[in-house]
Specification:
globular; three-stranded antiparallel β-sheet
């Protein structure tokens, strides 16, 4: 069965119910295959009407859930948010509450509002999966806490204290009127869940949050994100180290090993990299020929983690869907270049190369070919009187883009709509052809 009709398209409530009923009779693996193909909007709609959405949701990777929700926007993904597991929610917070390793209070307020609008249970889940240090920093960004003086009569102090309190000991003032209801929902949930935790948190907020809280929260975040391909900046730069073609392997690697926390039956769904990368490239055509689901899962996860490394190395924002898509297009382009170099346009060889190499190895080889061309371009520029500016159109613009720290293809000067990442050997050939023409022109003489 192929699930191609969404609830909104089904024509009637009865027909929509029949679609859902047919879907829910499928084996879980078949339901997952259907879910993979759905758009973000259709996923939200489907999860909202299933009788047991947890069967699907717990098989979605943290990265896939984040990408799906961010495509929709938190305000338009209530069903998905309501169904998120603790691991998925914590990953979302780890990625989206920080900018350049700095806590982002506006993002925190946005997420707190979204979660508070769902249910008290969801607020409690967020509280429980959030590091205490981060929770204190987030709460401090929305409330001020004053504590009563035990030496004075409470009634005498009331006129000088904020109005809101849950215990007649800690009194709360709200920093932003639009966050008042949200902050109250968090405070009431924490108080009901664990008065001891509540009193400890409020005492800390009343004293003032030390800077070490944010530093410690960042430390825990980095440790968790390292498992998802978000290394430290210096380590991320390894993806741009030169790699000779001889390092590519044609020996099939050992099958993937799943850890104990992964869902029974295999790795969780990580489909978005395969939907983002150019479907017509030799890389993606070779990937489509891989029948082994374990290999496809491995490649998809490696692509997601590699894109995360690109985001860190290039100084991009990991919480932006646009930046994730740009990073994946770069990853796909560089890998495609490496495959074209090794295989020509032989699909069988391309498939074997994909099955026997880690995606980072192929990415580095593709980037190395760009580096080799950049070195040739730098020699040409140094040898040309007047430098790059006198090389003429379009070569000057092509080389200016090529010699950047992070090279890109100045495609707008050869008829395309905008600049982009390198995608194929033809891109490199175009530049090399223009360079060869410059070498051969009579008015060019080396100095």
């Amino acid at each position: 069965m192929e699930y191609t009709i969404t609830m909104k398209e089904s024509g009637s409530t009865e027909e929509a119910l029949r679609v859902v009923e047919r879907f829910e009779t499928l084996p879980v693996e078949s339901r997952l295959d259907v879910f993979k193909k759905l758009s973000a909007e259709a996923r939200e709609e489907l999860i909202g009407v299933l009788s047991n959405p947890g069967e699907i949701v717990r098989r979605i990777s943290e990265e896939e859930m984040f990408f799906t929700i961010k495509q929709l926007g938190e305000a338009h993904a209530p069903s998905l948010l309501r169904a998120t597991s603790g691991r998925q929610l914590r990953y979302i917070l780890d990625v989206d509450l920080w900018r350049k390793d700095m806590f982002d209070p506006r993002a925190a307020h946005r997420w707190m509002k979204a979660i508070a609008g769902l249910s008290g249970d969801k607020v409690l889940q967020l509280v429980q999966v959030t590091d205490r240090e981060l929770l204190a920093v987030a709460m401090d960004s929305v409330i001020r806490v004053q504590v009563t003086d035990p030496e004075r009569d409470l009634l005498e102090q009331m006129d000088l204290l904020p109005q809101f309190t849950l215990d007649n000991l800690f009194f709360v003032d709200f920093r932003f009127p639009d966050m008042e209801d949200t902050a109250k929902a968090f405070l009431e949930t924490i108080f009901e869940w664990s008065p001891e935790f509540y009193f400890g948190l409020m005492e800390e907020l009343a004293r003032g949050i030390p800077a070490e809280n944010e530093e410690m929260a960042l430390k825990w975040r980095r440790a968790r994100l390292a498992d998802h391909g978000f290394p430290e900046f210096d380590e991320a730069l390894d993806i741009y180290h030169y790699l000779p073609q001889s390092m590519l392997s044609l020996t099939e690697p050992a099958p993937p090993v799943y850890d104990a926390d992964e869902p029974i039956g295999g790795r969780a769904i990580t489909e978005y990299p395969l939907k983002t990368i150019d479907a017509e490239s030799l890389f993606m055509q070779g990937l489509k020929r891989i029948d082994d689901p374990a290999h496809k899962d491995r490649l998809s996860v490696e692509l997601a983690h590699l894109a995360n490394k690109v985001i860190i190395a290039d100084g991009r924002e990991p919480g932006s869907v646009d930046e994730i898509q740009r990073a994946l297009r770069k990853v796909g382009g560089h890998i495609n270049i490496a495959i074209e170099e090794s295989c020509g346009y032989d699909l069988s060889e391309a498939t074997e190369l994909l099955e026997s190499n880690h995606m980072e190895i192929l990415f580095r080889r593709g980037f190395s070919l760009i580096l080799e061309l950049r070195k040739e371009a730098q020699r040409l520029i140094r040898s040309h009187e007047g430098g790059v500016e006198n090389l003429g159109h379009p070569l000057a613009e092509l080389l200016k883009a090529l010699i950047q720290k992070r090279p890109f293809y100045a495609a707008h000067v050869i008829g395309e709509r905008e600049n982009r990442e390198f995608e194929s050997l033809d891109d490199l050939k175009t530049i090399r052809d223009h360079m060869n023409k410059a070498y051969s022109e009579e008015n060019w003489e080396p100095i």
